[in-house]
Design brief:
The protein has 488 residues and is of the alpha/beta class. It contains 13 helices and 9 strands. The protein has a 9-stranded mixed β-sheet with strand order 4-3-5-2-6-1-7-8-9, with helices on both faces.
Amino acid sequence: MDQYIEGFGKLQSLVESMGLDQSISFPQIVVVGGQSDGKSSVLESIAGHSFLPRGQNTVTRTPIKVVMRSKDQVQQITVSYESGKIDETGHPLVYRRQLDDFADVAAEITRATDTLTGGKRIIVSKLITVEVVSPTVPNLTLIDLPGRIERVREDQIIYSEIEALIEKYLENPQAIILVVHQAGNDIETSRGLSAANKVDPHGLRTICVLTKLDLVGKEDDITDRLAGKSNHDDSRIKCRRVIGVVNTPLPRTDGIMQDRAQLLAAQVAAENAFFQQRKYTALAGNHGTKNLVSYLSTVFVEHLKGSLPQLRIDLDNLKVKLEDHIHRLGPVNFKQYTYTHNPFSNGEFEYVISVIDRFCHTLIESINGRIYLGSRQVRGGALLEQRFNTLYRNSLDNIDPLGDMSTAETWSKIKMAGGLTAQMFLNETAFELLTKKEIARMKSESINCAVGAHTEVLRICQEAAKESIKVCHVTRNNLLVFSRSWQC
């Protein structure tokens, strides 16, 4: 199972990094439901951590892609999104931040949402990706969509934007639809299930999760609902399966990996208590968060295997399309190439190569100090050399080794590192104790040097680009049309 998930993840990441994800439909689990149906609690129960923003009204205003990969390594959490800006190479600039604590994820998602929406109460289609790599999470990828709202006059625009976004994701034939609905409400009134049935009339890729079981009145009998049957007749609800869960609040954790096992055990205990106290004992084995995670994992892998033939066809078709476009651009003749090449001829490929070649040439010459970049100050490679060999070295020389530690304290640490063994020479443990602290004192100066060097390299690249690409506005538009046409 893991080999399919890992291979699929690598393929999807590769295609997305090339900007070709709009041309291929990948299998994914899409979560839909109303604002108060408990979508966030379901996602957090699956992950075993509380990490999604909370609040009134529409909190989720962008699709949030939660990528969980089970690997035997130190836990890593990354939040990323396309900032809407373009880097020096013309590619979308991706903001990426790595976190150590799940408690920081909600605040980072909120900041990302405000950036993408401009702080306005609108819905945008740009993804925020939360990637969790840990040995304690399941191998699943889910996309949390904004919760559906009631159609009222003051929220008409928000309503339309949410409906359009949900429709866009549900129409993907490779999507598994996870409909979240409150157990206390008639399932046939679920607008999420209704939307799913429009694109999946037989319910072959729809799964329904009934939330807040513990809030169902004791006098209400939801046996048929939990069994996936209609309340009005014995017909089956149009979905693969109905799974009920209890929304146990998850505390904000400190990111410790063992927490998920403890929280999952508490979740299972609460759900078992519910089924034992009510008249649903016979159904207990088919419901609960643990069963939900297991079932989603199985269905996703099965769906992925079934999608591989079509995925292979789509990739082959895309490959043929791109190769045909490259062939139509014509061959590259580097020997006869000159910088006076006309960009308006049919040799677009040669022209792009010329721009790249000119940029590389100017960049190298700038770093080597053989091109004047319009500044009378020390710039380019000379400034980099000055930063490393003069400024950085002087700043390190100003640090007094063991200056904040007396001779007596130094000898004390050396003796303690030796334990019962008498020390004639400085052993490895004592050396590490002393040098680690000194290295930490160098951190601030090292970061300042790296930031300064990075800033200068970016400035060199920008100046080199200005010197290399001297074309008119019309040529720029032609290049943009050309660079985008291969994606169409």
